[in-house]
Design a protein that fits this description.
The chain is mostly beta strands and about 375 residues long. The protein has strands at about 35, 45, 50, 65-70, 75-80, 85-90, 95-100, 105-110, 120-125, 130-135, 140-145, 150-155, 160-165, 175-180, 185-190, 195-200, 205-210, 215-220, 225-230, 240, 250-255, 260-265, 270-275, 285-290, 305, 310-315, 320-325, 330-335, 340-345, 355-360, 360-365. It starts with about 35 loop residues before the first strand and ends with a strand.
Length: about 375
């Protein structure tokens, strides 16, 4: 968004770069990140534990808590890959780090090429590609196997705050959407030179998400609303979710059924919305969660819903991750550890593991 802190400058490049794989981004750079196990496994002798302390382990992590560091700027976005074996992080240092989730959580690759802060990243359905949105007014799609940049997409005129796969449910790795401070929602196909569709929203867009079918896309913006668009007819919105009293800063759709959308806002609330066609609630707002405040920094904070659709999580300016029971709204966990605003949280797609990234330049992996 317009007043979000960005340490990188925007760049204006020629259209020829759309199809070129520059040397700076055509291969992995040397890995720079490190991982620290904050709680180790008990010592063993002939596979028999000599010391047994704490609750029973619930995941395959090397330790119950792992701290990942290496970025030289604020961590603005981080997510697990679709199968959960890897994760990616984007930062104000204009780089994307690729990590292994298990073992030593090694940083096995660095993607470079953006000229501004990376404000959001998303894995494509196969897990072999990644898309990134940047303050340099561009969106890029990357091959995570080779480290090459497949394409840079430049039609936005201001910082690109958000991106999302368009057809995650159908497994299409080529189509995605982006939203920016210029108020434009653009539809991209990696095989095409220019956007395949354009929606002019009129106010800066901070966040985007797409239904699993790809038939509906949603945008959060500075007008305090979440707007739903039917991709088959984008001349006018098909749904507007009203309830927040300040700018929407992040949205996410439930991964299992796609029936729910969660949003964060500068009004210091997190809201759960019912997207089902025959919703009994007039405004579709099923639950309002509190306990995850914003502050004067006005950071983009991305929420998440777990794989079983029983928990909602969000970061906050109080340096914690908060996890609520989706139905009751009761706080289940309030997880400390970071030294700055928590900008992104994500749930592992298969195990009870949560991921958080912060402006303190670090991430935590923890089992719950």
């Amino acid at each position: 968004m317009a007043d979000h802190k960005r340490k990188g400058s925007s760049a204006s490049l020629s259209d020829a770069d759309d199809v070129q794989m520059q040397s700076s981004s055509s291969a992995y750079k040397n890995a720079q990140g490190t991982a620290l196990a904050l709680a180790k496994r008990p010592k063993t002798d002939n596979n028999t534990a000599l010391i047994k302390a704490g609750p029973k382990r619930t995941s395959g992590l090397q330790a119950p808590i792992m701290q990942l560091s290496g970025h030289s700027g604020e961590v603005t976005t981080c997510r697990f890959s679709p199968d959960g074996t890897h994760l990616a992080s984007g930062s104000a240092d204009k780089q994307v780090f690729l990590w292994n989730t298990y073992g030593d959580c090694s940083n096995y690759g660095v993607l470079q090429g953006h000229k501004g802060v990376i404000l959001e990243l998303q894995w494509m359905p196969s897990g072999d590609r990644l898309i990134t949105a940047s303050a340099d007014t561009s969106v890029a799609i990357w091959d995570t196997t080779t480290g090459e940049r497949i394409k840079r997409c430049r039609r936005h005129t201001e910082a690109v705050n958000a991106c999302s796969p368009l057809s995650f449910g159908t497994g299409d790795d080529d189509v995605f959407i982006s939203g920016a401070d210029d108020g434009m929602l653009l539809f991209w196909d990696a095989r095409e030179r220019r956007p395949v569709n354009t929606i002019e929203h009129g106010v800066p867009i901070t966040s985007v998400a797409a239904a699993q079918s790809g038939n509906m896309v949603y945008s959060g913006s500075l007008d305090n609303c979440i707007t739903g668009w039917d991709v088959r007819n984008t001349s006018e919105p098909s749904l507007i979710l009203r309830g927040h009293s300040d700018s929407v800063m992040g949205i996410s759709i439930s991964p299992k059924t796609g029936n729910y959308l969660v949003s964060t806002s500068l009004d210091n609330t997190v809201r759960l919305w019912d997207l089902r066609p025959y919703c009994r609630l007039p405004n579709r707002c099923e639950r309002v969660y509190t306990g995850a405040p914003h502050n004067f920094e006005r950071n983009l904070i991305r929420p998440a819903i777990d794989r079983d659709e029983t928990m909602v999580a969000s970061g906050s300016a109080d340096r914690t991750m908060t996890i609520w029971n989706l139905r009751s709204g009761e706080i289940k966990y309030k997880l400390p550890g970071h030294k700055g605003c928590v900008t992104q949280v994500d749930f592992h797609p298969q195990e009870p593991i949560v991921l958080s990234g912060s402006i303190d330049r670090t991430m935590f992996l923890g089992e719950i």
